[in-house]
Each structure stands twice: as structure tokens, then as C-alpha cells.
Amino acid sequence: MEKAKKDSAYRAGAKHITPETRVLGVGSGSTIVYLVHYLRENREKLHPDLVCIPTGFQSRQLLVENGFRVAELDEFPVIDVAIDGADEVDASLNVIKGGGAAHLREKVVASAAKDFIIIADYRKMSEQLGQQWKQGVPIEVIPFALSPVMARLKEMGGAPTLRMAQRKAGPVVTDNGNFVVDVDFGLIADPASLLARTKALAGVVEVGLFCSMARIAYFGMADGSVQIREA
Ligand SMILES: O=C[C@H](O)[C@H](O)[C@H](O)COP(=O)(O)O
């Protein structure tokens, strides 16, 4: 599995991070660690003034520890390329993200990017969202709105669960001070419509459905190959 993650990250890095890439969005999760390894091992191929925009605390730390310059969107509101992991990717490149509760900032960074690329291992590859990722769609909610949002999500046919922290009593609290509700909607026939309906609920800050955003996805396979899906 680790090899598959590394293969996808290295293939995408070699293809999409060129000496012209000045501002790079760096996502979150375990696959993105390998992208930072790629950057570390290929410094001579990078723009001399490369600036990285991390999507959260984890990737920020990772980049700083490896000697890369990190900056905020205030300074660099347009990103050349953003690369990020995924929890599930369907045949049309709709993506579920937020398994690490980072999807709000990830979506902001992806939206600011001219090009958005996904890296993942083969477990994330599916035909329809909900096939592989059984944990549900991550939805970031302000704590004040938790109960009414949970009730509305049930009315919409979802099965919401408040994500609980491990090694801390109580719920997961995101980098933005909010809660995450994982909502099982079964197989998702129309991700864009589900995104629109869930995002419209008062108190929902962001939904971990990324529709019509990714241009290309790299999947590291069990046999050592890398499969590519393009929008
Ligand atoms: O919130 C977390 C992010 O959306 C991650 O990019 C996603 O969960 C994939 O993570 P991993 O590369 O660890 O599978």
C-alpha cells in the first residue's frame, strides 16, 4: 500500500511540478507525505523560488521540516498546481475527501489552483462514490449548528455520525475549530446534486465532495503500475 501511494505521488510530481511551478498547493494525508519526499529528492528540478501553500497543520509541518517555504493564500491567492490525496474517486473524477478532517482548507486551496491533481492508491478507485469509501461523506459543521444539521441530514436520507477523536475525549475539532459529521448516503448517484443540497444547510461550512475540480488522478496499483484517469 505504501508503495502504491509513493508511486502515485512520484508520478504526479514528475509530471506536474515543473521548473515553472512557482506556487504549489500541498494537500493533507498519508499519500501527500510521499509528495513532499519527491520534492525533497528533486530540489534541483524545482523553481528556485518555489512557495508551497499547505492545506493544514500536518502538511505545513511536513513542508517546514523539509526546508520548503510555506506561505498563505493572502500572499499568493493564485496557485499554479495543487496536488492532494483522496478517499474515493469515481469514474467522472468526483472525489470524496476529508478522511483526515482537512477538506475545508483543501477545497479552498484546490479552488485557488489553476490545476488540481489527485494522488491515491488503488483502494480509492471506484465507479461510483460510496462503493469503496464506507465511512460516509465528511461534512464540516459549526458546533452551534450540530443538532439541526444532523436532523436535516437524516431527513435527506443520510445516516450521520459525529466523528469522535482518538486519544482525546469528545469530538474531532478541525483546524478551523469546527466538528465533522460523517454521513452515509449509500451509493451516490449524483454527487453534484448531493453537494448542493448538503452545502445549503445553515451551519454547514464545507462538504467533502469535490465535483468538477480534479483534472487528473493518479492511482498507484498493487502490481506497481500507475493508472491515470482524466476528466
Ligand atoms: O482530510 C483529509 C484529506 O482529504 C486526505 O487527502 C484524504 O483523507 C486522503 O488521505 P490519505 O492519503 O491518507 O489516504
How is this structure best described in words?
Strands 2-1-3-6-12-13 form a six-stranded mixed sheet, with helices on both faces. Strands 8-9-7-10 form a four-stranded antiparallel sheet. The protein has a three-stranded antiparallel sheet with strand order 4-5-11, covered by helices on one side. It has six helices and 13 strands. Helix 1 packs across helix 2 (31-41). It has helices at residues 2-16, 31-41, 57-65, 103-111, 146-155, 191-199; strands spanning 23-26, 51-54, 79-84, 88-89, 95-96, 113-121, 137-141, 159-162, 179-184, 204-207, 209-210, 216-220, 226-230. Helix content is 27%, strand content 25%. The mean pLDDT is 97. The radius of gyration is 17 Å and the shape is globular. By secondary structure, the protein is an alpha/beta fold. It folds into two domains: 2-127 and 211-230, Rossmann fold (3-Layer(aba) Sandwich); 137-208, Alpha-Beta Plaits, CATH 3.30.70. Residues 27-31, 84-87, 97-103, 106 line the site of ribose-5-phosphate (R5P).
Element pattern in H and E: HEHEHEEEHEEHEEHEEEE
| Terminus-to-terminus distance | 25 Å
Q: Please report the number of helical segments.
A: 6
Instruction: Catalogue the unreliable spans.
Output: none
Total count of strands: 13
CATH architecture of the largest domain: 3-Layer(aba) Sandwich
What is the subunit arrangement here? single chain
Radius of gyration: 17 Å
CATH class of the largest domain, please? Alpha Beta
Strand order across the largest sheet: 2-1-3-6-12-13
CATH-derived topology of the largest domain:
Rossmann fold
Helix content: 25-40%
